[in-house]
């Protein structure tokens, strides 16, 4: 936190203990649960790296375990990087591959699986990457080329859409010529790592995303903030408005930023905290450069690695 970190990526790869042992990951599923909880409780966004096609996996088990990420409240990451297993030169996996002890999925199988994974992702998740950026000359087995294009075309042919944050963002949909409707405020709630997560978003009727806010209600505050009032803490883990960054007080034609979406989301989060959960103190974990925005625009003050604001209870 002292370095200004707001997001942590965990190399989860799978939820299969036997595969962890086989590839010598050095951790267990319980370690993933514990790490996810600690990160969330301190206000950090939690992203998982997920690796279909590991030794011992099948497309069916990969899909089933992926769905478990979102059905089991111990996990439910905020973001994902999908890294299909590739056989890289000079690794032990290459030795297994050449000895016939490991067989990577063929391109068609992996493309179909990634389509099914993307179709299973809930709307509170951002998929930020599909396929590791490793030069093809180092890859001796498995996928070598980008999957985004083939997956996009196959999902389009199947009439299936990915509902992840990246695929729904205003700027992305504007670029591909999607019709953009009138935005409105939406709310989605779910449990994760022992707390209540509330995703507030500004969307049109087709779920085109203009901005979002992640509000977490939990009982245990980060140690530097002292005890929770009324046994609860309201923690804003993310505020994001889609589109390219625009300097404060500047207006830019066609940009989603500085149209009041951030203020709308913050006002609703503060209202929910005070009126619904009776939590008078709102805590935000933000990047170092954004703290001044919260201080000047919303009246927050710095406290340790956070900015905080107290409001009277009704």
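-> sequence recovered:
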């Amino acid at each position: 936190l002292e370095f200004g970190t707001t997001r942590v990526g965990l190399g989860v790869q799978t939820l299969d203990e036997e595969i962890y042992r086989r590839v010598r990951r050095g951790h267990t599923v319980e370690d993933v649960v514990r790490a996810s909880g600690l990160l969330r409780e301190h206000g950090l966004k939690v992203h998982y790296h997920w690796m279909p096609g590991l030794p011992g996996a099948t497309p069916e088990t990969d899909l089933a375990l992926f769905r478990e990420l979102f059905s089991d409240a111990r996990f439910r990451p905020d973001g994902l990087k999908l890294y299909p297993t590739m056989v890289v030169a000079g690794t032990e996996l290459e030795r297994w591959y050449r000895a016939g002890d490991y067989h990577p999925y063929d391109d068609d199988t992996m493309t179909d699986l990634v389509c099914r994974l993307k179709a299973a992702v809930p709307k509170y998740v951002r998929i930020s990457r599909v396929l590791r950026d490793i030069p093809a000359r180092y890859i001796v087995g498995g996928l070598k080329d980008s999957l985004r294009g083939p997956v996009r075309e196959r999902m389009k042919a199947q009439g299936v859409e990915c509902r992840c944050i990246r695929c729904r963002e205003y700027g992305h949909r504007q670029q591909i010529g999607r019709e953009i409707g009138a935005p409105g405020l939406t709310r989605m709630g779910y449990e994760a790592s022992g707390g209540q997560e509330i995703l507030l978003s500004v969307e049109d009727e087709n779920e085109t995303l203009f901005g979002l806010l992640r509000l977490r209600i939990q009982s245990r505050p980060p140690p530097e903030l002292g005890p929770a009032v009324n046994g609860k803490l309201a923690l804003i883990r993310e505020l994001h408005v889609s589109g390219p960054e625009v300097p404060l007080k500047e207006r830019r034609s066609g940009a989603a930023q500085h149209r009041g979406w951030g203020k709308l989301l913050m006002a609703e989060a503060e209202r929910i905290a005070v009126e619904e959960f009776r939590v008078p103190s709102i805590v935000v974990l933000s990047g170092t450069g954004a703290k001044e925005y919260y201080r000047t625009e919303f009246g927050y003050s710095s406290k340790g690695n956070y900015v905080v604001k107290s409001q009277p209870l009704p």
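Confidence is low (pLDDT under 50) at residues 251-256.
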